[in-house]
Specification:
Blueprint: E1 7-8, H1 10-20, H2 32-38, E2 42-43, H3 47-55, H4 63-72, E3 76-80, E4 86-90, H5 94-117, H6 124-141, H7 146-152, E5 159-162, E6 170-173, H8 174-184, E7 188-191, E8 203-206, H9 217-232, H10 237-244, H11 248-257, E9 261-265, E10 270-273, E11 288-291, H12 296-299, H13 313-316, E12 326-329, E13 332-339, E14 345-349, H14 355-372, H15 384-390
Parallel strand pairs: 1-9
Antiparallel strand pairs: 2-4, 3-4, 5-6, 7-8, 9-10, 11-12, 12-13, 13-14
Helix pairs in contact: 5-8, 5-9, 6-8, 9-11, 10-11
Amino acid sequence: MIARRRAVTDAERRARLGVRHLLAPGTRADRIEDVADALVGLHATDPATVYLSAAARLAEPSVAEVERGLYDDLTVTRMLCMRRTMFVVPTPLAPLVHASTARAVAARERAGSLAFLAQIGWDERRYAAAERAALAALAARGVAGAAELALDVPELREKVLASPGKSYASWQTAGSRILRVLAAEGRIRRARPRGSWTSSQFRWTTAPEPPADGADPVAAKAALARRYLYAFGPVTVEDLKWWTGWTLTDARKALAAAGARDVDLDDGGTGCLAPDDEAPVPAAEPWVALLPGLDPTPMGRRHRDFYLDPAHVPALFDRNGNIGPTVWADGRIVGAWAQRADGEVTYRLLTDVGAEAREAVAVRAGELAAWLGPTRVTPAYRTPLERELAGGKG
């Protein structure tokens, strides 16, 4: 007799999301490491996203707690990895992420940087010499910005015109390219930025220990797939491909090596669960959350219909597929929020969530405004509804 395959309903998928992503009652974490671990990594292209994503999931949210992990204890690591995107991952997980994704990204970054600087006559020897000089200058200073390092290493000030003839053409320095590659390879890391926690003016410091390049990328892909399955499962092969930036073949091989179990989904498709994660997850108590733009919960998969009405996509995403700040209720995206110039956190619900949830959203918006205080946050990628709300038309 053939055993019937497990089915996971959309309701259970939403329950899993609330519990695994530390959004349901009683699931909040005490430390930034636990938040990053639960989600495999926090999106970090927009510096503010890391803090806002953590604040939505910490029992006692604070900027200081995130900075402790990033800059004091170094228990979380900012790195260029999945989809050539910045993430903050638990430091113990960084070698696995490096072997499975970041190493290949860094290799492409180095090749691109060499080709870019070849336009002004640089060869590999000159590039290597400038790189060594930059590392030596950074070691001597301890912490420095790109402009400071360029004072020590004049070659870093040389400029190249990127995308000539295009409306978005710009002059880029050799230093910006070299430092990006060194960071992608894990040889330097971002230190505290100038300004507030929302600033992207990062300074640099040497990495405590560059990642080893000897790890097997195939085994690392399987291990990362298992972590992703537990955090986001059930997922489809296309979800894993999208989240990692791997090829479809690599995603399929990683799921097979991870021992993924196929399950039936409500939309008629096939999803995958981690091999030790097939027990049903019951519905959590009602919950609401205000998540920032690029939060890992909505950005963690390609197929989102079980928690997002497709009709709301044009209002909530930009043209490149980046999501803005969202309002959640019981595992569904039900609206959007924004911060106005006066500091008020305003929102609009796109779905009728009932009186209790509406009141809970209002309370959460007030709490977020109080937590932000004088800080003003504008998402790096602005969406139609966020712009409208921020402009005072909510």
